Backbone:
């Protein structure tokens, strides 16, 4: 935008001496017609009453410029800004207004140049009009310059106001976001507090219910006790019968226990009478975790090593017996499969046959059943063992292995490596070591599959028996009868010991 500075009248006159432009646009669209007479005297033509004078033309142009200036005033811009126009539109209007202002300056300059040119050509009254028009143009230029300065100042103020409003809008948005975040945090805190209160109320309600239930049970007990006391103080025929029945039940139980005791004593006396002629007998407790030894009763008895020995399981009814495969030594360690049965050792030398039998059935170890029941609840139980033999050959390493008994398989591991891992099947066998001295009490025989057998030593007798019982329990759940070699085929024979021929 061109800016004109008015210092004094002399400067304005010097600016008026510039070259006159030829593209001035008047309302009449032409210059006035002048005639040059003799001696270069300008002869004015007769005035046409229909054409306006030069003063009127200048006044009209001035009014048009003022009207255009009024339309483009800062008040109008502020009104548009108040109505919600964007800053981009203000920038576009400012860009559009700059060439307009520049055109006004050029127009005034061209008008002045034309008036200066006409003043030199005319004389008389028209020359005075031209001077007056030139002064009006100069005043208009000064007013235009001042107005442009005011417009620039107002434009700067508007920009400041726009920047301030923009910053205020950003600050308001930021404050709104912060308040919204704080509100969300408070809502979450309040929600968590409500949940805690609900939880506390539920706990209190449950505790009240449990207390009410407990009080109700205590009240029922008190009522029953009161009824019992009342019935004691007021006996009836029914109560007398109940007391008599209770007494008869107690007497019957005592008689049953006494009869069982007498039957056992009679059986032991009868077996002692039959075994008086025997020269051998079994030594050791008749329960799990013990060793049964065949020992001579007299010093004159032959050496046991010359006999061929075979152990049997005898059912309590005495109708048949089962051969214990591999139990062919003077020492035998009972296993869980022997619980509730008699054990019998048959000694054969040529045609001579000697049998020795336990006085009663093999009893289980104390607390073993409850220990096994606690292990059944687990899906996998671990036992620390030492491998004694593999496929009948001694295993030199004494490193500790882990014997896993699971619901569906048995696994033997050493650290992270797995030595054997087999599911329960008909080819699998598991039993105690049959013979072998005192070490057999803590050992078992495991055939994982055909062609792969292990002899494992446990840390205690209890763990060895618990592992056997637990594995047979899980195998039975899989419809597998897990036992030792040939334990499934009973051998019917008389269970009574026979005297030597």
Residues:
């Amino acid at each position: 935008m061109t800016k004109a500075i008015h210092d004094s009248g002399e400067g304005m006159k010097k600016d008026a001496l510039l070259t006159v432009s030829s593209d001035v646009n008047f309302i009449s669209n032409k210059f006035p017609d002048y005639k040059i007479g003799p001696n270069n005297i300008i002869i004015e033509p007769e005035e046409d009453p229909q054409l306006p004078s030069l003063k009127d033309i200048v006044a009209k142009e001035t009014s048009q410029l003022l009207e255009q200036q009024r339309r483009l005033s800062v008040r109008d811009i502020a009104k548009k800004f108040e109505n919600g126009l964007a800053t981009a539109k203000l920038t576009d209007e400012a860009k559009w207004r700059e060439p307009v202002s520049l055109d006004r300056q050029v127009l005034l300059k061209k008008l002045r140049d034309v008036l200066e040119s006409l003043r030199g050509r005319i004389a008389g009254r028209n020359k005075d009009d031209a001077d007056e028009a030139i002064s009006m143009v100069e005043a208009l230029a000064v007013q235009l310059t001042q107005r442009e300065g005011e417009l620039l100042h107002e434009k700067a103020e508007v920009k400041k106001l726009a920047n301030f409003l923009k910053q205020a809008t950003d600050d308001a948005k930021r404050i709104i976001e912060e308040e919204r975040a704080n509100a969300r945090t408070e809502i979450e805190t309040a929600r968590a507090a409500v949940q805690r209160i609900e939880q506390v109320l539920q706990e209190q309600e449950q505790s009240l219910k449990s207390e009410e239930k407990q009080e109700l049970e205590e009240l029922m007990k008190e009522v029953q006790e009161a009824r019992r006391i009342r019935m004691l103080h007021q006996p009836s025929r029914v109560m007398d019968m109940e007391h008599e029945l209770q007494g008869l039940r107690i007497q019957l139980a005592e008689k049953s226990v006494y009869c069982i005791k007498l039957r056992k004593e009679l059986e032991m006396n009868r077996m002692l009478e039959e075994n008086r002629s025997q020269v051998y007998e079994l030594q050791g407790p008749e329960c799990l975790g013990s060793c049964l030894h065949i020992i001579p009763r007299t010093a004159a008895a032959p050496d046991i090593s010359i006999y061929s020995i075979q152990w049997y399981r005898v059912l309590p009814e005495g109708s048949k017996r089962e051969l214990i495969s591999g139990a062919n030594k003077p020492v035998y360690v009972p296993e869980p499969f022997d619980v509730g049965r008699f054990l019998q050792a048959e000694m054969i030398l040529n045609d001579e046959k000697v049998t020795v039998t336990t006085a009663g059935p093999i009893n289980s170890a104390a607390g073993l059943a409850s220990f096994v029941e606690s292990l059944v609840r687990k899906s996998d139980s671990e036992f620390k063992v030492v491998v004694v033999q593999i496929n009948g050959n001694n295993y030199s390493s004494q490193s500790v292995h882990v014997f896993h008994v699971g619901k569906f398989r048995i696994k033997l591991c050493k650290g992270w490596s797995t030595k054997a891992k087999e599911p329960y099947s008909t080819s699998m066998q598991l039993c105690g070591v049959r013979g072998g001295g005192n070490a057999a009490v803590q050992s078992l025989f495991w055939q994982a599959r055909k062609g792969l057998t292990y002899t494992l030593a446990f840390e205690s007798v209890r763990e060895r028996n618990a592992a056997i019982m637990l594995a047979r329990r899980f195998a039975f759940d899989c419809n597998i009868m897990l036992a030792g070699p040939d334990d499934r085929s009973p051998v019917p024979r008389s269970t009574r010991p026979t005297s030597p021929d």
